[in-house]
Amino acid sequence: MNDQNLMEKIVSLAKRRGFVFPGSEIYGGLAGTFDYGPLGVLLKENVERLWLTMFRDDRDDMYGVDAAILMNPKIWEASGHVAGFSDPLVECEKCKKRFRADHLEDAGKCPECGGALGEVRQFNMMFKTHAGATEDESATVYLRPETAGGIFTNFKNVVDSQHPKLPFGIAQIGKAFRNEIAPRDFIFRLRELSQMEVEYFVSPAAWEQAFEEWRKLMHLFAEALGLPQEHVHELEVPAEDRAHYSKRTIDFEFDYPFGRKELWGLAYRTDFDLAAHANASGVELAYLNEDPQVGEEKKFIPHVIEPSLGVDRTILAVLASAYREDDMGGEVRTYLALAPKIAPVKAMVSPLLKNKPELVEKAHEVRAELKKVHPAIAWDDNGNIGKRYRRQDEIGTPFCVTVDFDTLGETPELKDTVTLRHRDSGEQERLTVAEVAARIRAAIE
């Protein structure tokens, strides 16, 4: 799948409706940065909340941390990032633009001006800064390139404070920073990104079972997000392409409008990280197994399964999957078929006419009742009812609730009922407010 027109429509809708804005836009922008707008924040929070529910809160073997972005630089030396976190860089000798060599179809020709490209060199992607008043090498720190480092360095703290039994995991959502040579494709490849990561600690003999369990959970998460099964693919990464710490990696790829690209990753990191940090810090990071079974050691360094999911790439996949256009009444209708549990707004309540105080008052009462089900119940009385529906369709609101004169008793048998309109089909039905509340509750649960 490669549909640049679809991508342009998604980017346009995202800005027009307040999902995603270009970063620093009034100053001309900054490549590789984007800001989440009012609806984007809600969508992002809903995606993260769903992940926390499925990957952490619904399990009895998970713990959370929120580690600092700035960390002792020795951490990144031990993990191999200082020496090896790099991409191949080439520069055009004519226009001086820089590109990732592994993303070029013709390694010797500039895709912009056709000029000759220089020699390939490795470019470390970590952002450097300084901590404290001096700016010499002794004060160098890095913006973390991944969230995993903060999890591994807190392994001992979690074990000492929580006394977990193996297997157990530590989960974190947080910012990571990568000085990408060529950020592109909207929020797919960014210099500032958010990650949802788990480091799941297991005995060495149990890694394959744990790996399979997390693989299945990632597919369930994709389903819960509303990603079509046929657009999510597994790629078994060959040994020569795996990261230095990995003994097995599966890339979950997604059919984006610009082609099939990596969405998430699942890696078996062995004991590389804990062993490396124990060696570099001089602090023992072994696990004491107080009740070893036959064949198990009493003290050992656990192995790790890592499901790593990028928030921004997930949101882009959600938007691409949800984008729809159809013909309703002779005009093209654009809507987002978002799963109700992640939709920024769950329902919109509207009086049929905004200049009728009795309708407005009743509509506010209905909205107050529905907000007991979920706080994300919008109000809209701007323009005619058709335009209100179209606005809500475009932001993915699953239901629209209209209060009319029948609600007030103009037709006695319909008193205290409202019109419930369904986003995807456009169909309407007459229900009591209690029945509408039940529909919304069922949809988001």
Question: Could you characterize the architecture of this molecule?
Answer:
This protein is of the alpha+beta class and 445 residues long. The protein folds into 2 domains: 4-70 and 149-319, BirA Bifunctional Protein, domain 2, CATH 3.30.930; 345-444, Rossmann fold, CATH 3.40.50.800. The protein is 31% helix and 28% strand. The chain contains 13 helices and 24 strands. The protein has helices at 4-16, 38-57, 74-79, 81-84, 148-152, 155-162, 207-225, 272-281, 311-322, 357-370, 385-395, 405-408, 433-444; strands at residues 20-22, 34-36, 62-64, 70-71, 86-91, 98-100, 121-124, 128-130, 140-143, 168-177, 192-202, 232-236, 248-256, 259-270, 287-288, 299-300, 303-310, 323-328, 331-336, 347-351, 377-379, 399-403, 417-422, 428-432. Strands 3-10-11-17-14-13-12 form a 7-stranded mixed β-sheet. Strands 21-20-22-23-24 form a 5-stranded mixed β-sheet, sandwiched between helices. Strand 5 and strand 6 form a beta hairpin. Helix 2 packs across helix 9 (311-322). The radius of gyration is 26 Å and the shape is globular. The two termini are 32 Å apart. The model has no long low-confidence stretch (mean pLDDT 94).
